[in-house]
Amino acid sequence: MTETAKRAARRRQGKLPGRQDWSTWPHYQAAAAGFRGYWYPVCFSDQVGEKPRKVRLLGEDLFVIRDDDGIFGMKDRCPHRGVPLSYGSKQFPGTVSCVYHGWTFQLQSGDLVAAITDGPQSPICRKVTQPTYDVEERLGMVWVYVGDGERPHPIDEQLPEELVGNSAVLGQRIQQRKGNWRFACENGYDEGHAKYLHRAALWRLFKPMPVWNTTKIVERGRWIYRVQEKQYWAAEFPGLGRWTGLAWYKAKPPKETGNIGNTSSHREVNPVIAAQEFPGFASVSMPGVLRIAYPTFIHYEFYVPVDADDHLYVGVMADFQKGLRTLPFYAKYLGAVRWLFHGQFSGQDKWMVEVTDAPPERLYRPDESLLRWRKLAEDTTEDRLDRLRTQGIAPAAPADPTA
Amino acid sequence: MTETAKRAARRRQGKLPGRQDWSTWPHYQAAAAGFRGYWYPVCFSDQVGEKPRKVRLLGEDLFVIRDDDGIFGMKDRCPHRGVPLSYGSKQFPGTVSCVYHGWTFQLQSGDLVAAITDGPQSPICRKVTQPTYDVEERLGMVWVYVGDGERPHPIDEQLPEELVGNSAVLGQRIQQRKGNWRFACENGYDEGHAKYLHRAALWRLFKPMPVWNTTKIVERGRWIYRVQEKQYWAAEFPGLGRWTGLAWYKAKPPKETGNIGNTSSHREVNPVIAAQEFPGFASVSMPGVLRIAYPTFIHYEFYVPVDADDHLYVGVMADFQKGLRTLPFYAKYLGAVRWLFHGQFSGQDKWMVEVTDAPPERLYRPDESLLRWRKLAEDTTEDRLDRLRTQGIAPAAPADPTA
Amino acid sequence: MTETAKRAARRRQGKLPGRQDWSTWPHYQAAAAGFRGYWYPVCFSDQVGEKPRKVRLLGEDLFVIRDDDGIFGMKDRCPHRGVPLSYGSKQFPGTVSCVYHGWTFQLQSGDLVAAITDGPQSPICRKVTQPTYDVEERLGMVWVYVGDGERPHPIDEQLPEELVGNSAVLGQRIQQRKGNWRFACENGYDEGHAKYLHRAALWRLFKPMPVWNTTKIVERGRWIYRVQEKQYWAAEFPGLGRWTGLAWYKAKPPKETGNIGNTSSHREVNPVIAAQEFPGFASVSMPGVLRIAYPTFIHYEFYVPVDADDHLYVGVMADFQKGLRTLPFYAKYLGAVRWLFHGQFSGQDKWMVEVTDAPPERLYRPDESLLRWRKLAEDTTEDRLDRLRTQGIAPAAPADPTA
Q1: Domains of chain B by range and CATH?
Q2: Region Disordered: which residues (chains A, B, C) (predicted)?
Q3: Chain B within 8 Å of A235 (Cβ-Cβ)?
Q4: Which of B118, B119, B149 sits opposite C9 (nearest CB)?
Q5: Burial of B390 (0-12, 13-18, 19+ CB in 10 A)
Q6: pLDDT per residue over B307-362, tens digit each?
């Protein structure tokens, strides 16, 4: 091979370096539109009333509606002529009627109980059943279960443990964002980007971050934790120069530079958070939930697949206080966290999630956290499919197998 | 099969109920972009002058243009380099010249009679013929025939009979709308939706409708009529409650509740309409024409396929009066019909046509009218294809065979 | 076959007349996104600074950036997670760092020299090389070479000869336009359209054009010239009428009507242009460069493929003057040429390039110029591929083989 040909081979744009697909994790690869068999938050509770509210979740179109007996979910497509039922309205208690011909479905069962324009003896009554969804309310939000017809697990078994049975004050943001939910989740749990991408975010005035650190991933129950072992606050890159995220106008890093989990010595720590005995800073669980334990509050992000192209960002800040002790939280949330963290800081993540384009991808050492998250998703899904098989249930094909 | 598996099967979203496709009516299924072999209204007569006017019809791009000898239609794509001829202009009488290189086509024959930029002896002259369209003017509108090269039937054989040879005053609206023309036509002839979808339309203040009724479909000549047999003005739905479209502020229903065709006893009826001896209220004919005979006027809707995605709504209100007796018509049309009927009422139909998504579809008893319309379209098309075959003509493939 | 069937065959819209594809020129047909192995102008020199500037060229995404050592080009996609490197910034001299995780690439070599968030000893350093592009500056513009890894030829061998080593004053416009670059180039070199399409352009007040003329194509070096032999300033089209592009308010045509190349007798001719001894008016060379030699200046158009759908129009007016003699040029360019020629006149071409839709196409006599241009492109490309093969280089597949 001539020098020119070698040069050609080196500079050719064809084959991209690194991993060409995600076939190492086939379930994860197939889950472009999300993992089935979970509860997902879709909106705030006070956004659902007696009029149907359209929801798109895991590529499925449904609506939620409130009735005297609670909140119900139903597939949005009227089987008669395909018109969205969410354009309809409630003509009789406990039902919804399609706007076009008045086909009337029972919210509880999905049964067609009347076709108004064909009279009370319409032969089609009770011959059609519209698919329904299980719906719950938690944390001031409406949660919908998307499965394959199996009986849903209790939602409290899926929520972060400390949010069940403890009283907490919450600051929340729900925002639809472009980009696949997996990029959002990988971005959230990603070890590396926060130190560089967010270096100029205002939130970083209060939250110093090292240039780099060593990490280990620890599994505990449904969660995998990312534990920083040794942190380096400045670094000299040979032949290039020195780099640091610190500045005289920013908060100083903690004295000890070991396990940042040991931050309990700094200030008064909320007992619920302390009771967690968290071994690390950030943790993630299925079906795409990030938990970041700060000394005095916990921040959560739920990445909810709308479909393969869009996701809901649901950010929750929880402080486990009661009564008068909740007042400083509201001041802190409304005065700073909402704008600096759920706003500008998270807006930089939003930007990256929109433009990430992988695979192909060439991972590096800090991406160990991504690999472990993908393995968690893969193993958990394999277990679920085993359970379905023993119940004789064939799971639905993924909504978008190409992505 | 376990209970859970049964639940899974019942709630699974996979297979939709009812009819999965329209293969029962293969010609109808293939006619997403319309039926060939008919005259279609495309615009008002006064919209066509000496400049070419672009028209899209049955997925074909053409233009119409007026000359001393009448109106002509021609395929819009210049064969030289594919530039639209409708960007061109008239340089010599009876011709149109392409804007790009001055290729000049005779309107009557489609023959290339000059290529200006290659001089009078250009060897390409008379070597190229551009496809032309037959064009007629009726009812103040321009009509174009789309066929397969056969000699068109006279347009008067296709127009509603009473519109040929009778003097009538007309109120008209032409509007391009989203959605397939078949949904528009099925919506127009549909027995069921008017009673429910339009229940709050202002037009319904003057036009009472029953909750439901029994119907029979009667064929007469080119038309099939929908005859209401027994009407029910209120109904009690077991376990749900009572429902009625009546209200104290709305017009009352007629005394007799039998064949609504017998409305001639109510008021003075226009003799042309009476001469129709219509056995029912609404009728439909190919290639998608709806006729609704009111006691004192007739309303028509022509559903004109632009392509598989869009259609023209052409609404015509005709009153068979002359001279001074036309004045009340104009008052009625401009004061009420145009806004309430061609406007708000028809706007609700427009909305449904946009969002209808069938097949799959699960039809119910009142959809007998749809089934009969589809059968009419199927049989009529079969007859036409037989005629073409005897003339040695192979019809064009449908413009969009997928829809 | 009956008369009706013949009529059907004649009027059928199915098969279009003329050439159905460009398979006569397979390389040209495959070059929807441009020909590889050439330098292309992408922006003005003063548009490139220390921030990366995104460029799309031949369907490839890259960026250009200025450093102390010159201008560099690099593929825009970070191999880590696919984020555009053009969102990044310069953290160390001679490098660019990805905005997401701080992956840092050397501009000169493309080598990954640091991954900031993984520390100075990151094992991935020097394991990844980002493809780079050769970049040069000429005529106040930045030029990028797109090849297959071979050593680029010197840019001066590709520029129009008279622009190398001669001092000239330039008036320039760079504009991104819709439409394939081949339609732009064919439009530029096309003999026929100028006389008709531009008949009402203000530029034509000063530039008379015949109705038609005879032409011969002359090859000289890298260029093929279009030589007008006999010009006809008016013509009588039999059965239609007389047509001319002249008018009392327009400039008169030259006295002699032979070879328009002999315009040197009219006025003082710039010696550089005269030295060209151009045998004709318009010439074209690879990879899509038009040169129109006016008596006192030369106009160039570079048609730069952005991808198969868009191209850059780069218009350059050059006058080979120095010192005070440049002043009239600026007055002429800013006062007239920029608005009338690079503006309105060229805007008519822009419109046609957008709507041209070929093949299919039915060419006519003046299209001899197009055929010769396509043959030039075909032969030149065949020669280049031969050279690559002897170097052991396999060229990349075209970016968009369908168009």
Answers
A1: 46-141 (2.102.10.10), 155-380 (3.90.380.10)
A2: 1-20
A3: no
A4: B149
A5: exposed
A6: 999 999 999 999 888 777 888 888 888 888 878 877 888 899 999 999 999 999 99
